[in-house]
Amino acid sequence: MSAGRTTRGEQTVLVAVVAACTACCAGPLLAVMAAIGVTSAVAAFVLPGLGLVTVAAGGGIWWMRRRSRAHCATPSGAVSVAMPTLRPAENGRDRVTVVHTTDAAKRRGQ
């Protein structure tokens, strides 16, 4: 037997081994390849959907925060607040009720 050549019998055995390996391992290899393909196909449709959901949620949060800032804004300058007046309770007890000046003016007919 020479070092670089194979005989006809060795080639037959080698072909038989390759055929047996192909027959035995083809199913699992095809299953792995199919799983990778299915996963890729699902990801191709799911990931853009997740991106749209993320953008929509971010836009909704931005819009709500923007609306709440407009409604909850405080005045920039000083605000004058009328001093409440005190009057005795109408039922004659010792309690004192607080009446705002605008309410007192309305009750007096002014």
The value of Rg in angstroms is 43 Å
Number of helices: 2
Summarize the biggest pleated sheet. 2 strands, antiparallel
Mean pLDDT: 79
Cα end-to-end separation:
128 Å
Q: Based on helices, strands and strand pairing, what is the structural class?
A: mainly alpha
Spatial strand sequence of the major β-sheet? 1-2
Determine the fraction of residues in helical runs and give it as a percent range. 55-70%
What is the string of helix and strand elements?
Answer: HEEH
Q: Low-confidence runs (pLDDT<50, min 5 residues)?
A: none
Number of strands: 2
Strand content range: 5-15%
Shape label: rod-shaped
What would the keywords be for this entry?
110 residues; rod-shaped; 2 strands; mainly alpha; two-stranded antiparallel ribbon
Question: Explain this structure to me?
Answer:
The longest helix is centred in the middle third of the chain and has 64 residues. The protein has a two-stranded antiparallel sheet. The protein has two helices and two strands, in the order H-E-E-H. The protein is mainly alpha-helical.
Note the topology:
Blueprint: H1 8-71, E1 85-88, E2 96-99, H2 101-108
Antiparallel strand pairs: 1-2
Quick overview of this protein structure:
The chain has 110 residues and is mainly alpha-helical. Helix content is 65%, strand content 7%.
